[in-house]
């Protein structure tokens, strides 16, 4: 851990260090100012002592200066021993030194006395004052006139020790105050951040899978209290959703499970526990190879990988032996990959439904032909030569043929031209070999209409194994087929423009890419972003924006060649797939048409609006990358077109 992390790694430390630093700086300034003020007081006392001593010396030396008694003056200036006195000096009116603490100075002239001597009103004067020396001169007055000057220099003396003591004490007090301030800052930061620290503890617990903890709420409405209550509400909502999911999974009679990408179980319900003969706690975190024999585990893993490879639901029918009681059930399993919001694979979710009872019911229907009259499914019974010997009322309702119109005829007249000889040969082969065929089949009705059927055909055999009859049971699934077509349209096309959506674009891009790779032909991928669409959408409303998008989609469709594709990614983004390109110039011609078509004005009621297009193009095999990367390269080229001023196109890789 670095020093920075040690000091500022948490909010508590940041607050404590910040308050301590502010306190330290403030105390340093305060003590420094106090020391300076105390030193100023000591210096003022030093100057005042010098003033008093100079006056006293001037009064004491007045007679001797007047008579120039040098011996007497010398005695006065030798009054050493006084604490802090640096020198005593007596000067005549001309500035000549008459007496000095240092005898060597006697007889010399003092240069800085001229201005003082020239004053009309003599008075005590401070010639210099600093922490080391106070230099003061007092006039010697006799008979009403100035006959000389007494000059005194007073140093720090005892004040030096006192000044040092003041500075030392100031430093000590500062350090003590800083330590106390740091302790108080730490205690204050702990008090302020205690609840935040508790919220962090709960968040760490949630991150490690413990969802039962909650942040304490003391009822205060400050920021931390609001955050704590919001955090608890979020955890409560999450717990509620987890309970709902758990209840749903456990309530479903189907077997339900979720695996990660490595095949480890993340979730399962009690119905699946029966397969392994274990509780959920013994299943989660393990793979099929840890729970089942190797052949079964390999079988399940293969189907997991098939679902991942398909990118969507994969169905499989199989018999499964339940480990808890040894019974065998026939299940239909649906597995589908699971992705997060960014499209990253999370794992596989599976659901298995027990169809054992349904399978047995189907077998019973072959032996209970007498009930076919009330059956809602159409039933046709033929002899070994496929000639119709009976039909039920549902057959008439579905096909339009009455019973007496079909008796004695082979069922071939019901066949649709959609199925060729190969299809029918496969059906008969399955009946001969397996005795049953099941699937979807198109049938022609009485009036020429065609409808889809879910058909089950079973061959009945006698004791010798010879086929005696065929029973065909069918259900009209035309509505289901139509609904599937509608779902396919919804799943693969943009509901606003009717253009292929991102999913269908991915399929067509993969097919076009494979075809281009095999045939060594060019494949152009162009990404279009409309310029100026957002202001129209914002100012005229979403309905106007939708009309613009539909119009642009129609124009783009008219600009393409046969075999090309235009798809809408979403918003105002479109993608063009230009197949069988001879060169980039062929793509350029298409894009120039697109730019011209998009730029034409659009009438929206009383408004005329216009947009332009910024297009990014990349061409395979010049840009020899995967289909997904081709789209990203086209997107990058599109942004270059926008940077170039919009209403233009750019080829990926061009400088």
Describe the protein's architecture and organization.
This protein is of the alpha+beta class and 655 residues long. It has 21 helices and 22 strands. Strand 8 (314-321) and strand 9 form a beta hairpin. Helix 18 (533-540) runs antiparallel to helix 19 and helix 19 runs antiparallel to helix 20. The longest helix is centred in the N-terminal third of the chain and has 50 residues, at 11-60. The chain is elongated.
Could you provide a short overview of the structure?
Helix content is 48%, strand content 25%. It has 655 residues and is of the alpha+beta class. It has a five-stranded antiparallel sheet with strand order 2-1-5-4-3. It has a five-stranded antiparallel sheet with strand order 7-6-10-9-8, with helices on both faces.
Distance between the termini: 47 Å
Number of helices: 21
Number of strands: 22
Structural class category: alpha+beta
Q: Shape, please?
A: elongated
Portion of residues within helices:
40-55%
Defining traits:
single chain; 655 residues; alpha+beta; five-stranded antiparallel β-sheet; 22 strands; 48% helix
Describe the protein's topology.
Elements (H helix, E strand, L loop, with lengths): L2 H6 L2 H50 L1 H6 L2 H8 L7 E8 L4 E4 L13 H4 L7 E6 L2 E10 L2 E11 L2 H50 L15 H29 L3 E6 L4 E4 L1 H7 L3 H4 L4 H4 L2 H17 L3 E8 L6 E12 L5 E10 L1 H12 L10 E6 L4 E4 L1 H7 L3 H4 L14 H14 L1 E9 L5 E12 L5 E10 L1 H15 L9 H18 L2 E10 L1 H8 L1 H18 L5 E6 L2 E9 L2 H16 L2 E3 L2 E3 L2 E9 L6 H17 L4 E4 L4
Parallel strand pairs: 21-22
Antiparallel strand pairs: 1-2, 1-5, 3-4, 4-5, 6-7, 6-10, 8-9, 9-10, 11-12, 11-15, 13-14, 14-15, 16-18, 16-21, 17-18, 19-20
């Amino acid at each position: 851990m670095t020093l920075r992390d040690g000091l500022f790694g948490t909010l508590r430390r940041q607050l404590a260090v910040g308050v301590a630093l502010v306190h330290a700086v403030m105390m340093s300034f305060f003590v420094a100012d106090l020391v300076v003020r105390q030193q100023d007081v000591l210096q003022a006392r030093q100057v005042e002592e010098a003033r008093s001593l100079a006056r006293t010396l001037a009064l004491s030396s007045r007679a001797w200066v007047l008579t120039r008694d040098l011996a007497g003056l010398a005695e006065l200036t030798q009054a050493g021993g006084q604490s802090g006195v640096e020198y005593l000096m007596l000067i005549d009116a001309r500035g000549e030194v008459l007496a000095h603490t240092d005898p060597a100075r006697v007889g010399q002239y003092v240069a800085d006395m001229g201005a003082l001597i020239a004053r009309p009103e003599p008075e005590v004067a401070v010639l210099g004052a600093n922490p080391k020396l106070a230099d003061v001169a007092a006039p010697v007055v006799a008979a009403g006139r100035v006959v000389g000057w007494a000059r005194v220099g007073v140093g720090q003396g005892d004040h030096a020790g006192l000044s040092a003591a003041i500075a030392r004490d100031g430093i000590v007090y500062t350090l003590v105050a800083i330590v106390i301030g740091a302790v108080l800052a730490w205690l204050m930061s702990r008090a302020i951040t205690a609840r935040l620290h508790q919220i962090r503890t709960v968040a760490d617990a949630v991150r490690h899978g413990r969802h039962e903890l909650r942040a304490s709420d003391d009822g205060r409405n400050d920021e931390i209290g609001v955050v704590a209550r919001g955090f608890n509400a979020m955890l409560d909502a999450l717990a509620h959703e987890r309970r709902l999911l758990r209840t749903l999974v456990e309530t479903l009679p189907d077997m339900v499970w979720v695996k990660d990408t490595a095949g480890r179980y993340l979730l399962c319900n009690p119905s699946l526990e029966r397969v392994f003969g274990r509780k959920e706690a013994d299943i989660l975190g393990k793979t099929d190879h840890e729970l089942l024999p190797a052949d079964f585990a390999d079988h399940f893993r293969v189907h997991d990988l098939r679902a991942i490879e398909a990118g969507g639901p994969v169905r499989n029918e199989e018999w499964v032996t339940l480990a808890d009681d040894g019974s065998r059930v026939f299940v239909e399993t649906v597995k589908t990959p699971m992705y997060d919001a960014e499209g990253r694979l999370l794992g596989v979710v599976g659901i298995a439904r027990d169809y054992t009872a349904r399978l047995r019911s189907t077998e019973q229907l072959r032996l209970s032909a007498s009930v076919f009259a009330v059956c809602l499914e159409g039933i046709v019974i033929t002899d070994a030569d496929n000639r119709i010997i009976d039909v039920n009322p549902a057959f008439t309702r579905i096909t339009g043929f009455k019973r007496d119109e079909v008796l004695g005829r082979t069922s071939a007249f019901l066949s649709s031209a959609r199925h060729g000889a190969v299809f029918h040969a496969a059906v008969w082969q399955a009946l001969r070999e397996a005795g049953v065929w099941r699937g979807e089949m198109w049938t022609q009705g009485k009036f020429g209409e065609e409808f889809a059927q879910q058909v089950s055909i079973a061959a009945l055999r006698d004791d010798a194994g010879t086929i005696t009859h065929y029973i065909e049971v069918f259900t009209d699934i035309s509505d289901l087929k139509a609904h599937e077509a509608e779902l396919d349209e919804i799943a693969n096309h943009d509901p606003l423009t009717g253009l292929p959506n991102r999913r269908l674009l991915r399929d067509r891009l993969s097919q076009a890419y494979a075809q281009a790779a095999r045939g060594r032909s060019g494949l152009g991928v162009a990404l279009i972003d409309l310029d100026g669409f957002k202001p129209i959408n914002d100012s005229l409303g979403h309905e106007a924006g939708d009309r613009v998008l539909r119009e642009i989609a129609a124009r783009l469709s008219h600009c393409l060649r046969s075999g090309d594709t235009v798809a809408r990614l979403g918003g105002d983004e479109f993608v063009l797939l230009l197949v069988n390109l001879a060169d980039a110039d062929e793509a350029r011609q298409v894009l120039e048409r697109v730019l011209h078509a998009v730029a034409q004005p659009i009438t929206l009621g009383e408004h005329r609006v216009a947009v332009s297009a910024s297009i990014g193009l990349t061409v395979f095999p010049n840009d020899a990358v995967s289909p997904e990367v081709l789209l990203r390269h086209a997107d990058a080229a599109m942004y270059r077109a926008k940077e170039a001023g919009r209403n233009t196109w750019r080829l990926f890789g061009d400088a």
